[in-house]
Amino acid sequence: MPPEQPLVLIVEDDSHLRQYLTTTLRSHGFDVAEATTWEEGKRMALGLTPAVMLLDLGLPDGDGLSLARELRAVSRIPIIVVSARGREEDKVLALDMGADDYITKPFGSSELLARIRVALRHAADLSAPVPMVVEVGSLRMDFASREVTLDQKPVRLTKNEFDLLAVLTRHAGQVITNGQLLQEVWGDSAKAHATYVRVYMRSLRKKLEADPTRPRLLLTELGIGYRLKPDLD
Amino acid sequence: MVPVDGRPGCAQLIRATCRMAEARGAPWIGVHLDGPRPLISSRAEERRLSDNLLLTEELGADLIRLNPRSRNEAREILTLARTHQVTHLVLGRGEPNWRTRLAGSVLEDLSQGDLELIIHVVPTQASAEPPTAAPARPEAVDLGNLGIAIGFVALATGVGFLVFHYLGLADVIMLYMLCITAAATQFGRWPTLIASVLSILALDFCFIEPRYTFVLTDIQHIGTFAMMLGVGWVILGLAERIRAQTRLAQNQERHTRTLYHLGKVLAEGGSVAAIQQRVVSFLRQELDLPVALLLCDAKGRLPVPAGPGLRLEAEELEIARAVMERGAPVGHGTEFFTQSPCLMLPMPGTERPLGVLGLWFTAGAGAMPASRLDLLIPLASQIALALERASLAEDRTEARIQAEHEQLRSTLLSSISHDLRTPLGTITGATTTLLNPGPQSAPGDPKVLLGTILQESRRLLRMVNNLLDITKLESGLVQAKKEWAAIEEVVGSALSHLEEQLGARPVSVELPEIWVPMDPVLMEQALINMLDNAIKFSPPGSAIEVRGWVEGDRFRLSVADEGPGLPPGEEELIFEKLYRGTGRPVTPGAGLGLAICKGIAQAHGGTITGRTRPQGGAQIVIALPMDGVAPDLNPDFNS
Q: Within an 8 Å CB–CB cutoff, is residue B545 touching chain A?
């Protein structure tokens, strides 16, 4: 067994889903640990330090949300919430509580693997020094000179547009909630309102997308936030 | 048949007749002779009459009011009996003389073999209340009339002086007779009396020898004076009778007109509440009094507040309760609560009282004439009838809705169980085949079967989601959380959800760059369903058009396809649950998609419509209200 096989901790009480996850992940080169309860999940997350944690929200002995919050306070393990709760409010809550991503049951294995890869890369980026230049697909952002190019053509952005795009680019592939975007770009400004984000996204799309209704880069997660399309290939 | 009047024992008679009719299982008639009232009729008697009339109707009789053309009431009643094929006639002992005559006439007719009628004579006890000989309502003496009458006499005296020399005493007497007649026909009792006495005095003083004294020498003149008085009195009697009849006719005409107008108001129909409102405003106008309709609730209890701006005082509540208990008018001008300004009348329904009609005789309105009650009682009954009809109609509608609801539920259940079991069956079947492949299975089989399983799972998921959505929408759990949404985000998100189903279909999108108040998540769902519908009902590869525009105060979002369009006449039906289209191949799905769209549109206070475009293809349009102020569109206001 090659030593670099990343460990995925699955905290899920449903045995069938656990089995499916384990089988899928093992066949794609991951190491897997399984926990079935809140307590067990917490113990294993802290003891095993997995590379990624898949967390079900409906655990028999507690709410997965509180586990995400507790873990986030002491650890930077990427947490992907796996839940049947499809409501946007639940997703926003989980993301704001410290989860890195959210995936709603039922889901296909390719979607799951893509999310895990994004989370792993994000975790790796965190440990590396902050890069001055980030490239996602044909988009290139230079944080030092605050220059943006798309398909090698320079794009002129305002300060807020640049900051907004910067947050999304640094977390490429991850959903960033409206609240997180507001916090990152406007800080604690009392004036900040979710509509701001939409206003800036509209103007960003006009500058970066050929057809705003068929975005290739700036994806909308309605009711939650935005995601920059990851460049996984 | 029983005659109905205001005599003390009549109520007893009516009840006896009712019992008799019930014992025979035959219908019965109450007949009331609506003549001019006797000059002296007590309030008590009038009240009893209206009570008795009411009682007759309540006990289930047909009430016939007869305005006799001749004085032979007995004959009129018999004619009525003949036309209504009456077999039994109920009379009380101690009836007025015409009824005794009636019995006689009946015997006469019977003997002629013309009419078969059994007469029951029921002993009635005069009620405890003795017939009060209260004076007729005091007639105000009109001083003006009195003056004119005196003027007539003075004029006659003057003319008498002029003509006395040429014509003689007899003609002067005729002059005075003329003015007595004029006073009698025009001015009523007191002026006539005064005019008569003055005429006699003036005649005696001015023209009869010895003149200019009141001394009478000729005994013949006493006869003349007596005759003058007598003629005056007879004419007065006739004139009073005519006046009374005219008043009666006017009253009746007014009653009829009011009832007719009320009938028209009631005939407009509508809900109980609508009728209530219309009746109250009509009566307010017609009677010029504050009016309220208090309706009972389903349990027959009187709810306290009813009618706009009316709050019932304790006394009024008591009156209302008394009306409900007695089933008769109570309050102003009746036996009970006579002094209250409020009069309440029962509104009898066929099974239980429907409520109470209340009128307020305010200080300015003065006392209520007794004839008002005659009008108000049938008025209340008519209103009750209309209200009952409306309430029954509402009940029926409710029952029908309930039944339709049940029907829908069972259809939904059978439809759902079919739609859920079919994909589950496929999945189970395909999986078992994969687990136990046959000996001749081809190497490609597993892939095909797995594809099927995936497809069916997705179908199942869509079904479950739709069911959850429609349930949430219908239960009112979902509320549109409106925010200023960028419409292109909603459309873009919906399109990306359907990327797989859309495949290579050309989708043209045309949207204004505006902010629309909507719940983006719900609207995305509606749009997904609209697009899904367009994909399902148009040929593969054909174009789909998404268009948004502002029209008036509405934002319209339309999805159009190039399919066969909507079946004519079913443009509304497509938004009903379980509608799958008629006369076309059954497509998968429980017919919930557009019903969900409708629910979402309504949750936004908007509407959804469908049509076949002139150039062909179906078009579904959601219209959302554009309310509120859009956010600042300048993206750099903060940089």
A: no
